[in-house]
Amino acid sequence: MARMKDKVALITGGASGIGLSTANLMAQAGAKVVIADFNADGALQAAENIKAQGGEAVGIFLDAGNEASIKEAVEFTVQQFGQITTLFNNVGSTNLMKDQDVLNVDLDEWDRLMNVNLKSVLLGCRFAIPHMIEAGGGSIINTASMAGFTGDAVRVAYGASKAAVVNLTKYIATQYGKSNIRCNAVAPGLILTPAAKNNMPPEVLDIFAKYNALPYHGEPDDIGHTVLFLASDESKFITGQTIQVEGGHYIANPTVPDFEQYMSRNN
Ligand SMILES: NC(=O)c1ccc[n+]([C@@H]2O[C@H](COP(=O)([O-])OP(=O)(O)OC[C@H]3O[C@@H](n4cnc5c(N)ncnc54)[C@H](O)[C@@H]3O)[C@@H](O)[C@H]2O)c1
To answer: In which domain, by residue range, is 119 found?
Structure first.
């Protein structure tokens, strides 16, 4: 309970998946939590569930693509709970039909993703940091993605926006560290959120599992526990970092399977 005692957290995209897991874990650890989401009903329901278990939470509407809405969410958090110590910039979006390769990516979709995935992080920080300075410090966690570290056949806008989140994290950490504000990111690999489970056929999930070093898929709580650690004072000397939570999917030289076949053929 003490890990997040006296902390007030704003969690964007908190009605589902990674954000919902983190909201639950932070509330269980004693934080007061504001769950902000485009899906306002989902945010309200998530807050009700936390309250039913003895936690403190409120659900509100947020459009992370809209500057005024982000400002409103931060100000609401401060009015509701007196301060904001923790900001989890978690909203992220992509649309595979439009976010294609370099020659074909829809440019309106490119702009939308830079706005929702990247500018929302900047704006969340812009509005929260003055309150954090007033409160004596804080912890900001951004959701990047392993797509920000690797190339892929599609999702060029998503990948570029998430790579930018990784470096924006370092800028925030550099510029506000002396104000006792830490900023880190988490980079998930494939995580079995409801959206991922519904959108990916079993065959595609099997392809991902095949390349994990570990014999299982990632789950929302795997990210939630990492974010909780970065939000708590246990990580008080960690800033500017992006923690990759990806089951070892990206750690090996990609030629390993080919070489294993080569070795077995030639031994
Ligand atoms: N699930 C994965 O495999 C995976 C992998 C890498 C990175 N991520 C990142 O993790 C974050 C959370 O993803 P998730 O898998 O939990 O997704 P999810 O779809 O389960 O949840 C996302 C939540 O964000 C909300 N949302 C979407 N657009 C919004 C907007 N403009 N304003 C306010 N709320 C909005 C949705 O309503 C939803 O509740 C995203 O940034 C995503 O890019 C996910």
So the answer is: 2-265
